[in-house]
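can u pls check wat happens w/ magnesium ion
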Amino acid sequence: MLETPQRRPARFITFEGGEGVGKSTQVRRLLTRLANKGIEGVRTREPGGTPKAEAIRSFILQGRSEAWGAGAEAVLFAAARLDHVNQLIGPNLEKGTWVVSDRFCDSTRAYQGLTGGVEDRLIDALEVLALDGHSPDLTIVLDMDPVIAFERVQRRAVEDGLQVTGDRFEKEEIEWHRRLRHGFLDIASANAYRCVVISAEQSEEALEEAIWDVVSSRFPELQGRAA
Ligand SMILES: Nc1ncnc2c1ncn2[C@@H]1O[C@H](COP(=O)(O)OP(=O)(O)OP(=O)(O)O)[C@@H](O)[C@H]1O
Ligand SMILES: [Mg+2]
């Protein structure tokens, strides 16, 4: 008789989507909701998440890997992810702590793969190696018109006291963000068992509620827990 595979003692949830759609905001809100239900969780992010992976993140974000091309960058992201999975994600899940990550493997597929031109077989192979069996249990893909997301990012920069350079999106840039948006939607439909697309064009509170509906109906252990 086939044995039912043992479920991990905790859940791994990732948030994906384009820039400024509200991922970081909703990761924080979800962890607060989980804590209110008595669920311990950790917040993490990609690229990065551990000291070694953060070192690779800053190397890439400073533009130091650019000359090597998107393929080499995908390999570097995979090296960072391997450390993140082995040092943070795996150990927390094994001890029963939920993990919520602000971006994960689908961002590599969308940025280096669909919009960066790295071939699928490299992305697929790196994903298998770096995940080491730690696929997310649920991925929330936040979806919205990139022009509205851009306006949010501009407002965030002003709130953070940063200098805002340029107050409009160049046409080419909009097109690139539209391609990225459709890339995430394609990834979600190819992985429908894991990904749920939610419109991010709603208030922070309404979006939090929509995400909670998905999370709480997906995981039976959350049902019937006192708030
Ligand atoms: N539902 C919402 N409605 C309006 N503004 C929002 C909403 N969610 C987040 N914001 C604001 O939009 C900005 C971007 O949100 P946030 O930083 O969470 O997005 P992000 O997806 O993490 O962005 P990035 O891709 O740059 O990391 C912030 O200033 C945030 O306060
Ligand atoms: Mg963010």
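The chain has eight helices and five strands.
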